[in-house]
Specification:
By secondary structure, the chain is mainly α. It has one domain. About 55% of the residues lie in helices and about 5% in strands. Strands 1-2 form a two-stranded antiparallel sheet.
Length: about 80
C-alpha cells in the first residue's frame, strides 16, 4: 500500500495548526466561511502578522470578538 503524497504546504499547514499558528490564508478562509465581510477580514488581518499566533495575538482577536468558541458557534459546531 502506498501512502498518499502530501505537499509541503499541507505539512506546514498541519504544523502551524499544532503550534497554534494560522496563516492569513487559513484564517481568511475560516472568516469567509463564517460569513464575515471582506472589509472586516481586511481590517482584522491588517492588525495581525502572518502567521497569526493565537496566543500572542489574543488581545487583537478579542478586540474583534474572534475566539475559537465564537467561530465554532457560528459554524454550528460544538466544543
Amino acid at each position: 500500500m502506498h501512502k498518499p503524497i502530501t505537499t509541503d504546504v499541507s505539512i506546514q499547514s498541519r504544523r502551524n495548526r499544532d503550534s497554534g499558528l494560522r496563516s492569513h490564508a487559513e484564517f481568511t478562509q475560516v472568516l469567509r466561511r463564517v460569513g464575515y465581510s471582506e472589509d472586516f477580514i481586511v481590517e482584522v488581518l491588517g492588525q495581525l502578522s502572518d502567521p497569526i499566533d493565537l496566543q500572542r495575538d489574543q488581545q487583537v482577536l478579542a478586540h474583534y470578538q474572534l475566539s475559537s468558541e465564537r467561530l465554532m458557534d457560528r459554524l454550528g459546531g460544538s466544543p
